[in-house]
Amino acid sequence: MSNTYDKHGDIAENDEATMVLLVLYWKSSQLGCVYYLHQFRELYFIMDVKNMDLKDIVLELLHQIQPTHVILCKSNELELTAIIKNYDPDIKIESTNAKSFTYQKGRQELINWYIEITPNTSTASTSLQQQQHYPTAASAHSSLGGQSTPMHPQDRLRNGSPSPSSSSSSLSSLPPSYQHHRYISDDNITKQALFNLSSMVPMDSFTTITCLAPLFDAFKEGLFGPEMIGIKPMTLQTISLPDTMHVPIDVIRSLEIFQPRLHPSTHQKKGKEITSLYHLLNYTVSPGGTHLLKQWILRPSLNLTIINERQKSVAIFTAMDQRKGSFIKKLASYLKHVKNMARILGRIYEHRAKVSEWHQLLQFIYYVIKIDNLLRLLTTPVDSPIVEKFMNLVDVELLTRIGKYINDNITFEESQLEGRLTIKKGIDRDLDLLRSKYEALDNYLLQVAHEISAPLPVDIGHLLNVVYFPQLGYLLTLPSTAHDYFAQNAFLYDGCTLQFTTQENCYYKIDRMRDMDEEIGDLHGMIIDKQIELIQEISEQILQHRQLILTTTQTLAEMDCMAAIHNHYIRPQMTDDDDQHELTIIQGRHPLQELVMDTFIANDTFLASGMTLATTQSAQSPSHFVPPKPRYPTPSASSSDRLGLLRHTDAKNILLLTGANYSGKSIYLKQIGLIVYMAHLGSFVPAERAVISVVDKLFTSIQTAEMPGKGVGASFGSWCASLGGIPGEVLERATTLYQQLSQEMPYEEPTLTQQEARRYEDLDGLLARFLNLQDFDNDEDAGELQSIIDSVASLF
């Protein structure tokens, strides 16, 4: 994919959104993986993946990451290239020698990056705090609370403290900025960096750390374009795949987790249709929130603490909205001004930030203060993990100081006119002196022109003028029509030479102009150079507080997700008992299907493993499912508040669903899968009540993805082949959704050969054996299941 560039040679932002660099390294049955997301300047570190099928894990990573460029080691290039090209032939692949993939080099590159990107925190914490004119936290909060009408970010930050003197806000009043680890030896710096990194990255993930070296080499060498030279990630994220649900690509497609939105028909007065779970939940308003929600949906969590914290925050936000009426709406109106701060800080670090991006940074601080004010105005204490996290991690006082520091030094009105950042007057004495000279330059040049024209005849003297051009200096100018006449009098001026001509004027250099070049200098260039120097100091001051800004952005992204996924569903009860697994859904509904149906009939679901269910349900259709009167209470029949299944020795953990075509079997199975999936995101679910055990793997064969034209053998064969990887997983906590076999058959069966007929006879017998299985926790039934699967695999 080709990149586009703006007029400054920077890569366009829409291309930044798609640029993802991935490094893969396969060695000794271990896969190492790191990737860099350029839009958010994020470096992702995926812990070593061990003892998994290479093709399956690579395809899963490709689907989650969606890379545009991949770096491979030449030692396993062929195998990985085949997998990648089969997935997406447009992905650009670069191969690197094996000597680049070394643990020591990758470890050192990581340490060097951390040292370079992390300023001396002791200097950073005092540089802005030593400005005495900034308000305290209490005064900042009280002043915000007293505002009845919103103010412009610049005005709000300007009025947030007593008016400082012109000298107190100048750059010269600050301590030396960005003296990186000034009093620490290089050896101690490395040890400290390694100590800090050990809490962020598992240093025993040797294969993944090995992948870091070629990635940083690509940044240094501009392997994927000159715009990538010198790029530095702003944040480091660690992902542990064992802590996330294993969801194959076919499950993502079958359950419609991600689907393109359908545009409205010109014949129907409807907006875009919600066609996926992502579109159903995605009401985020900030770039970081949208990005984070997608990560949540791609990698459902298995951490019960994280799931419960998300559920609790969603419940609190929903309750706030019900009490306040417009809490979520007001919060969203503030969050939409929180832009991609990682990208903006990266642009500042690369000296490429535009005026609009600096202004977005100032707006970000302003709306963080507004959000803090909104949360503090709550009349009752809020026991919400995300609110507590915001209060504990976000230093609003320091952010206020940073915002005021930016506003006191940069004039955005003039910056917009100039097209570059402009420093305010009164900040730097030398800059002010240069500006005063530049402002008086017109009068001075007019005086010089009068002095120079004195020896000339009056009819030509009044046409002479002296002008100043940046970089060209001072020039004597006359109309082109007077050139010949002036040439006859050029002897009056020492060193007179014609520099260039235009259609209307001629421009000359004389010794007087050269003296002015030496004495006065290129004022415009000097002003710009001085401002660049001061902006560099401002940038370094801001970057010292990079971690605070990024932490605040990440917290607000989580808050955006919580506010977005709040809905009118119910909070499921999540359990994590290794001995007793439960899936109980009372009056569950399909979250997507009910949006397009006038009437949707809800259905119950009862499945258990390691516990008992009094009866085994079998029905002709889920839409008309009426369970028989149970001998033992079911969750819907029990009067107890405790939701769950009663233990009994006759428990079954398989639900067999049969019914006619178009009776709703697929919808029912997808409904179960989506409810389980949503519960692991921390979202509420469409049901009256639900108890869901943590599920580490989710499989489905609801919908095949074969190419058109394939016959019954291919369709049925792929269904059977999909069973091959499941038996070992079923014995754990995997939830498997399988559609009735006849759903995979076309309505008109083709004529079968004698060999195919025997094959289907054998499959019919295997299916009968499969349906006779009782309990996968039983060793005998588990062995029988494995035997059935092996037999199916041998037939294809």
TrEMBL record:
InterPro entries: DNA_mismatch_repair_MutS_C (IPR000432), DNA_mismatch_repair_MutS_core (IPR007696), DNA_mismatch_repair_MutS_sf (IPR036187), MutS (IPR045076), P-loop_NTPase (IPR027417). Residues 139-151 have a biased composition (Polar residues). Residues 125-177, 619-641 are annotated as: Disordered. It comes from the Eukaryota. GO terms for cellular component: nucleus. The keyword DNA-binding applies. PANTHER family: DNA MISMATCH REPAIR PROTEIN MUTS FAMILY MEMBER, MUTS PROTEIN HOMOLOG 5. This is DNA mismatch repair proteins mutS family domain-containing protein. Residues 272-596 form the DNA mismatch repair protein MutS core domain. Keywords: ATP-binding, DNA-binding, Nucleotide-binding. It holds the Pfam family MutS_V. Belongs to the DNA mismatch repair MutS family. It comes from Absidia glauca. The gene is ABSGL_09929.1 scaffold 11783. One of its GO terms (biological process) is chiasma assembly. GO terms for molecular function: ATP binding; ATP-dependent DNA damage sensor activity; mismatched DNA binding. Residues 652-739 form the DNA mismatch repair proteins mutS family domain. Residues 161-177 have a biased composition (Low complexity).
